[in-house]
Amino acid sequence: MLKLQIPKNRMNYLMKQVQHHYDAQQLERGWEDYHKSRVGDIDLVGLSIHASVASDKVYEVVLNLEDFTQSSCSCDYNGYCQHIAAAFFSLYAPYGRPELLLQQLKQAIHTRKKTVRGAPSTPERKASNPNVPQENAAPAEWHRFFEGRFHGFSISHQHSIETFYESALETLPGFAASWRTSVKELYQLHIALFMMRKIDQFYQDTKSSYLSYYHENGCKVAAKNCEDKFVEFVERMDVNGSYTAEPKAWQATMKMLGDLALQGKDSPVDWLFIYRFLWWKMDGYEKIGQEEITRLEQLLAKKETLARKKDTLIVARAHFDIIQGNTEDAFERLKQLSHPNAKDFFLYLNYYYNERRWEDTLVWLRWLLTPIAAANHDDFRAFCQYWLDTTKHLETDGEWVQVMESLLPRSYYYYTAYLLQTKRYRQWVDLQLANRISPLNLYALELRTIEDHDASLLLPLYHQAAERAVQERNRASYKTATRLLKKLHALYKQLDQADRWEHYVYRLSDKFSRLRAFQEELKKGKWIR
């Protein structure tokens, strides 16, 4: 069966129309026809889908993507038949599992009928246009519109999350094209918030799924894209001017963001970053800032607050201290954290680093020294890079060296590279000895650099590695030791210390005299008789 993938906005339109025009029984018959692979010859002709459905005989179906009411079938059924429904399910297959969509649609149809039966006799007040977002509507109304546009959207595998992200960015901004700039920019901000909220919701719904690993990866990628898009929207807009023009909408936005960001739950979206980033841009509005501080303190005062949520609230409250320039007060407040997460504070590192405020950057680097020990690899690497770049603007690199030494062995790769870069070769060798690194596991170019500088520095490195290999006491390790001894012999010759080499090799032979296989390797090398 040929699989044809129509644009997502067309698919959303069809789902709404099917839900509105079909009853559950007829829809289930259509799914049965699809399930039994009776749909074939699907083709897109203009804005219509042409397909054949082989039921009791072959019927020709035309499904109009622009006006569903103009869809038709060659069967005798008076209305929307099972064959049109079968073609619809076939079109949905590239987006998800049609059997799950069937259950969703049946539930929606049941709810619709129940609502109609229980409707009041008085006419309901109609919205001005429920299919289009309104320029002067509250942000909550925009989100209801967004939900309606993506009602029934099924995410069943990793790539569908990407499809959702791309579809939302493609279809939603256009509705505000003619709005005044201050509202249009805020509307775009809410598109990003909506996408992050839906990704978060999907993540929570699929945590117990056997495919949760793949869903989680897809959610994290999409969430990071949304965060970047959110930052892009905020950086592009005039926040102060927009707030002055639309104060009520902005106040509703900040309240909504607080409700989303302060839950402290596990999420692929870094809500705490989104919350603090936007509040940092709002620092000129003390009234709503003070209202938020009061709200945070009230939430912190609740004794039953879970530890993870309390940590989130503490970081959020400390952020307002930082906005007001009270960094010391923020540090005092942050001492209350039960599990400080280093990544939560990269927002400040990045800000001060980009502003080239090295002293402020250094203050945060020092504070992060304790929590960074438990950070993941990517965060640890970012921390080391921030330190290294900041050190270039300080009078001495002594503190950087102390930090790297205190974080060993995790900082080994950053520290060893820095020692070579600054030509501290003796410290570099001491580092390899302390970590019991064999020269066979080091880059030849690094060894050559030190050898050209002072070959004697490498002697203890080869001594240690050779004797450690012998102590493993097997034929393979003896051959490894022989390779190291050959290089060691060459180094002694280069230093014109042949007597010292002979003294060492005979002492080594005496030390391991009972290891006959090793003695044989020494004889093969013609180092002993």
Automatic annotation (TrEMBL):
Protein name, per record: SWIM zinc finger domain-containing protein
Region Disordered, residue ranges: 113-135
Keywords from the named record: Metal-binding, Zinc, Zinc-finger
PROSITE patterns in alphabetical order: ZF_SWIM
Domain annotation SWIM-type: ranges: 59-92
Organism for this UniProt entry: Paenibacillus aestuarii
Domain of life: Bacteria
